[in-house]
Structures are given as structure tokens and as C-alpha cells.
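sanity check this record:

:::
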Amino acid sequence: MRISYLWLKDFLNFQLSPFQVADIVTMAGLEVEGVAPVGPELEGIVVGHVLEARKHPNADKLSLCRVDLGDKTLEVVCGAPNVATGQKVAVIEAGTTLPDGRLIEARPVRGVVSHGMICSGRELMLSEDAEGILVLDPSLTPGALLRDVIGPRDWSLDLEITLNRPDCLSHQGVAREIAAALRVPLKLQKTVVDESGPPVDALTSIEVREPELCPRYSARLIRGVKIGPSPDWMRWRLEAAGLRSINNVVDVTNYVLLEMGHPMHAFDFQRLEGRRIVVRRAETGEKFTTLDGQERILDDRMLLICDAQRGVALAGVMGGSNSEITEETTDLLLESAYFDPINTRRTSRLLGLSTDSSKRFERGADPNATVRALDRAAELILQLAGGEVAQGVADVYPRAIEPPRIDLRPARVQEILGLKVPKVEISDHLVRLGCQVAINEPAHSLTVRPPTWRPDLEREIDLIEEVARLHGYDHIPTAEQARSPLNVPHVAADAFPERLADLLTREGFTQVYTSSLLSAREVEIPGYPAAARIKNPASEDTAYLRNGLLPGLLKVAAYNLHRGQPDLALFEIGRVFAAGDDGLREWDALTGLLAGARNAGLWDQPEQAVDFLDLKGHVQTMLSEILLDKPELFYYHIEHGTGDALEVRRGERSLGWLEQVHPAVAARFEVDVPVFAFEFSLPELAEASPGRLVYRPFSKFPSLQRDLAFVLPEEAAVGPLLEEIRSAGGPHLAGTELFDVYRGVQAGPGMKSIAVRLAFQSPERTLTDAEADAAVEAIVTMMAQAHGARLRS
């Protein structure tokens, strides 16, 4: 769930930075996966007024635009189909750089010099729309800086919301948590709906035939709206949250979803047969086409929203194409309902259709928020699309849903938390969360009624957890030792880590999960960044966030070695952290460890201790499988002389390293055997991987092979040499393979001999020996001139 920092300020008065807000949210019990700026800097982008847009004299699909920038007028050639006279647009002058780094220069376009560019949303990195230019609010002043028009730069807090906290799937819900933590009031919008015309009950009716599956169905009717684009502020907020702008009405329903957390749907009222709504079960085999154009086969376990004759929406999941909002829509029926979570989840799973709406209904929406959401949506639609709101709300709510009454004992709070919290303070904590609390003096207990937006508060222990959160985990006394194991796995969810895990498993490695909390002694690994200490550690042996995965793997290795398991091939994929002057950095890493014997347990092959080349071979296989098998994409670099250590790079960017773990480091973890390890940054590795295979046909013609042995200085790295050989060998050099390395008397002191097998092949014809020999001569000459290498006789 992406939460906008500026949007939170609609609900709270605070002067905190985005990172301070993230800390508060984390201490409140919500997981913050990242904090990042939203959008580009927009330096040098100004508002322009298109005074004239006429056809280019030399190109049918280009326009010649005269644009007013306030203090000057520019002539700009534009290829967007939607540019028109009178528009306010985003303009960049020649000599200025776009957010993506491109420099805009004055240049002739089909014979006419363009002195700048009118920008699209994608070019400004404000949206994914690249079909046309970004059309701005017509009231803007020419020459105004676009960054001032947009307002302060926003920040996005990426939250991982657990299944039991549907109330936090909205900006209002997260703001409520921050307000409770800061002990400040929550600012709630005062909604004003200007009603007029006949009452809604005179224009439509609602019939709910399945009240168990739809305990509440509320609706408002708005007539005379004008469908069009949403204003910039709404489009930017939606797109920052990951939603695409569609039109002003649909955008309002999505906006209210993100703001209040309650799903809504808008029907074209004129397309509803009988101008009424019927909520019923679908019939087995009934067909229904959803908004995505897919025809779906339903059964009688699914709830269907219908008009007088047919289905118009899958309850809580997705609307139908037969009643969607179009440019011709003038009258709307706004739906705001509460659907049974279990039934919604079943429908979503059976149809393989998961939406933002279904995710919220599955977890439990607030049944008492339907009318508030309707009023907020109606208010926004009147502002953005005009129209007339019929008087009243059609609200079918036969049996009000009441929250449970829970008895909370302060003595039990003290028993669980290990500290005494006064009853008045307990009450204050819970009231700030929206609970109704009555203190029962004679019974030494409290009677608590949680709000209906908190379906997770059902038992006394749930309330005790809330007291702990708001009292502050950092105010709970620290124990000498952790009472329970903290080995909680961090499993990356996307396909790239899963692919790496599969590759290493096939290489014979075993995946492990280790704790992300370490002691001060364990995080002191040479070459690792500074570790971050957590504010409220359970014990000193879990006081630091791990700054790498190697300590955890060494602990696993020690555990196995002490239990008679000497042959180890382990790896872990997980999040690591580093402390810095600019705050906490975090990224996903891949680390592997190798120790023991090669060919262990194979009767027909001798056991030999693994060495650095075994590790290097496994890593090369993995890199080859993710298409990083070409030397021009990476090379190895000797990092230090205290042991075998290589750095894997692509260009100037470091992807990771391989090394023999220093014996002193291994001994710190009670590992007394040679250990070899590798570590990669997953973001860097994923970016370096092309991600897709490129088809190249096999040649049907025979190849010619030549073997060459060069004597050259010991310090020469083989990887770059092979790349130079490929370059010097010409277009018919189809393969190079290093098959021998010799050090000895014949090579000489400080020298080594490398033997390379070359394969020459053409996709078009059979090569001659003379052609292969000429290529070999070019390689020999290059090696002699560039590296002082000579052929070994």
C-alpha cells in the first residue's frame, strides 16, 4: 500500500519529515518497506499558453505551435495529436534537461527550428501517458514553474499491511494510527452535500434478497453530470498511489477508496433496466462480462448486483461492462455497500479475479462507513463533474452491525506486558483508537467496544496488544535474553529471487532463513557497512539489524559442523540494512557459503576439499543461467592479497564478490574449516540481467578449431583477456574456451601459461583454413602488442 506523505497532512498537523513519519508508523506496528520521493525534480519546466497551433508546412502529423511563456514567446514543433490552441501545457526550453537526463536543444524539424518541447506526462515522469501532451489547468499563469504549480514534492511510504488490518488500507486509517501515536487530534473532512430535486426513493429502489451476504447496501443518485478528465491534483495523487486516471467520476470512486478505505462503484443509471438495483445470488452457469471485457461463468455461491433484468456487477469484486461509465453518461447511481468477507473471498478465488475492492471486502470493510463514503464521493463529483444530487440516501440496513463488548482486566495487561499500566492510561490509549471505554471501578476492569473499522479487535488479548503498541514497545522493560526464537524468514516475493533460488538449489545448495537481528560482535565483518542498532532490542544478542547475510550463514555452518555435518553448500536471500548519515538504507541480498568436501559420498570419485574455484564455478553457472554469461557484461577483479577474493562487475558497477572467508572471521563464529562465500546485491544483479533470451540459429556448416597457449605475466586477469581475444578474432570467432593454466619452469618466474581453444564458424558457408589462420595471426599479434604475451612452444 503506497501512502502519500502530503495526503497524510490532510488529516494531521505535523512538522515531521517523511522518515520521521515512517519511524512513527513502524513503532506503531506497521511495516514500512521503503520511503521514496514521488516524481521528478522538474527543474526548468514552465507553464506555457498555446497561442496558436497550426499545421506544420512540411509534415502532416506535426504541429507548429506559438507558446507564451510569460516573458517570451517560443516557436515549438509538436508531434502530439492532442495539442490545440488555448491549452495550458508544460514546456521545456532549449538548453534544459528533461527529468530522464535528455538535453533539449534547438534543432530543425522538417525545415522549421523548434526552440523547445511541449511535454507529455511520461516525459516529465508524472504519469505513464505518452499518447499526448500533458494538458494543464486552464487557470494557470504562463511562465509559472511547474514544480510550484504541482506543489511541494511528495514522498511515498510503502507499507506492507497485514491481513488483519484492513483499516490501514487508506490514508485516513494510517493517519489515525499516527494521530494515536502522537496524541494529536485527527482532522476529518467536513463533508457537505448540496441535495436538490426529488428524493432518491422516488427515482430508484434497492432490493436485497441475500441480507446475510450483503448486510448493508447504500446508494446515492446524481443526475446531469459531465464526464471528463480529472484535475491535475487528483490525477497526480492517484498515479502516485499506482492507479491510472480514467475519468472524473471513476477517479472519484478510486480517490475515496484510497482516502477512506471504502470501496465504491458508479453505475450509468440510464443503462440500468427498470432503474432499480436487486442484490441476489447468481444462477449456476450464468454468464457475466466484467469491466475488463472477460466473460465469466458464475455459480449460485456468488453474489450478483442486478438491475431489473440482468447482472450489472460482481458484488465486492468488479463492475460489469453493460453499466460502466462512458463519455455519454449523465446520470449516476453510486454504490457503497458492505459485503460478506468470506463470500467475497470465495468469489474472487473461484474466478481468479483480485481487485483493490475485493482485497478490502475480503479483509473486512467498515459496515458503518457506507454513507460517509457516499457523501464524500458525491461532494467531489459535484465539484468535478457538476450535476444534481437527489435528496437522501437509499440505505438498506435491516440489522445494524454492532461491535463486540470486551472485558479488559488491567491485571491481565500487567501479566502479559510485564509492567503496570493504570486504568486511566489504558482507557486513553484505546479511546485514541476509536474505542468506547467504560471503567468499572468495583470489578477492576474495563468494558471496551472497538470501532467497526477494527474487525481484528475481538478478544482481550487483542486489546492488550493495542495497549502495548500505544504505550510504546520501547517503554517496555528489556529482558536479559529473548524468550522465544526470532528466526523469522524473509521471503522475497518476485520472480527474480525465486529464479536464483531455483538455480542454486539445482547446483546442490540448500536455502536457509536466518534472523535479521544480530549482536554487535556478529555485525563486525570487514568490508560490511555500519550496522544499525534498533531502539528497543529484546536483548543485546539481537540489538542490531543485519548488515549482511554472511554472519547468519556462518552461524548455520557452525551449528552443522558441531553436529557432524562437514559438507555444506548453503545460501540465503533476504533483506539487509546499513546505517548512514542520511538514514537507514536497505536492500535485498543473495549470499552463499561452501565448505567441506567435493564429491562427498560418491563411491566412484575421490573426495577433495572444496576450494575457491568450486565456488567460482557455481557462481559462473548461476550468472550464465540469468544470461550474464558474456565477459563484456562482467569481469573479476582481484580485491586483496590476503586470500582468494574476486569482485563481479558490470562496467563500473559492482554486483557482488567472492572470497575465502578470513579464518579470523570464521573463528569468531566457531567455524574452524576453510569457508568460501559469495554475496550479491539483488537490485544490481536484476538490473544487470537482460531478463530474456535472444534466439540465435545454429550454423549448419562445420567449425575449425585452433588451440593456442600464451605465456604472459602472472597478474594478467583471464576474463578481460578472453574478451580481447574475441574482439581481435573477427566475426567468425564463434567460441573461446580456457582449458589449461600452467605455472612452472617452462613458463618462467612471475609468468603463467594459459591455453585457449578457439572455434571458427560461419552461418553462411564453410570457412577455409587460410581464413582461420589469418584470425589466429591477428589474435597472436594483439596479445604480443597489448600484453607482451608469446606463444608457448
Q: What stands out?
A: Residues 195-396 form a domain with the Phenylalanyl-tRNA Synthetase; Chain B, domain 3 fold (CATH 3.50.40.10).
